[in-house]
Amino acid sequence: MAQKDLPRIMCVDDEPRVLEGLVLHLRRDYEVHTASSAAVAMKSLIDMGTAPAVVVSDMRMPVTDGATFLKQVMQLYPETTRILLTGEPGREAAVDAINKGQIFRFLTKPCAPDQLRAAVDAAVTQHRVLIAERVLLQETLIGCIKALIDVLAITNPVAFGRASRVTRLANDLANPNNSSSSGKRFWQLEAAAMLSQIGYISLPVELVEKIYYGERLTPEEKILMEGVPQVARTLLGHIPRLEPVLQILSEAIQPTKAVGDGMIKLGASILRLVLDYDGLVAQGHSASVALQTLRSNKLHDEEMLTKLGNMLGAGTAAEEIRTIPLRLVKPGMVILDDLRSHMGTLLVPKGFEVTEAFLERMRNFGSGILQENVRVMASIIQ
């Protein structure tokens, strides 16, 4: 097996001799990285770019103990298997480690080489199982949600056109280097973005347009709008394994102090930002004015705003805008203007990404509309 294909292990201990021993016993079959403290380890993990298969940490370390460190690892890299190594196998240490870090194995010093290898081998196997489960879950769940959105777009094109735009922005912001193609796709955020408008299915299309374009609402319409989050919770609440998606949605709508650092907080921050940005642009503001308004509100992380601004400035590098008859649009193209019937009914909202299901529905629009020119954004093959 080539070195680059070896499972990656991170070993953390403030005793150099212990680290040397861990490397000695593991280096033949694993790519072993070491760190002398939790802070150094966390920086190394972030610099790696990809999560390790296993983290082995000492319990008693200065500043941050092993249980607290493994809790941080769990929050940032939930599929990384965690092993705690300690010289004091007391009950309090064990309980603390299990409650905080949800560890996979609890080993005591001195640890026999065979015992260490067996624990790490089992941890790597556990990591592979979690990765396989995550890939199956994300592909199945995302595929089902996309099919659902295609169907719902027929009944409420404004809301689900917005969902399409928001999803694209959120994915780009979470994966600025196109890392989604290499398996690091933030599927929980993608699902939350796609489902962010599902509550609007309960509202009349005309009311959704008023909300979307920032028009004044009557008291009765405001009451209906305020019920949208509850409709979403009711529709999605009983779907298995959707809990992290619902947490991101809930936190994006109404931030709380209960959510600490980690996947949920990051996903909610990104989704909240792109929703606010899209809302301002929909009301006629330019991208630069929208970003300036968001900065002045001071409701979003400045680093995230800068990232969004940089992304928008460079976002057309591999894309081009064309004007073509509607009948020639293809999957993956993004429609840049609202398309309405001769009666004024909204058929396709701006920002809608063309899908195979949409092409099937498009055939019912009538030959006159199919001949109309539309502006689309299409990817350029590099």
CATH architecture of the largest domain: Orthogonal Bundle
The CATH class of the largest domain is identified as Mainly Alpha
What is the string of helix and strand elements?
A: EHEHEHEHEHHHHHHHHHHEEEEEHHE
Number of strands: 11
Binned, the helix content reads 40-55%
Q: Please, what is the CATH homologous superfamily of the largest domain?
A: Hypothetical protein af1432
N-to-C terminal Cα separation, in Å? 33 Å
| Structural class computed from helices and strand pairing | alpha/beta
Radius of gyration: 25 Å
Q: How is the CATH topology of the largest domain named? A: Hypothetical protein af1432
Q: Please outline the major beta sheet.
A: 5 strands, parallel
Tell me the strand order in the biggest sheet: 2-1-3-4-5
- As for the number of domains, it is 3
Brief write-up:
With 382 residues, the protein is an alpha/beta fold. The protein has helices spanning 16-26, 38-48, 66-76, 91-101, 113-155, 157-174, 187-194, 205-212, 219-226, 228-236, 243-253, 263-282, 287-297, 302-314, 356-362, 367-370, and strands at residues 8-12, 31-35, 54-58, 81-86, 105-108, 319-325, 334-335, 339-340, 346-348, 352-353, 373-379. Helix content is 53%, strand content 13%.
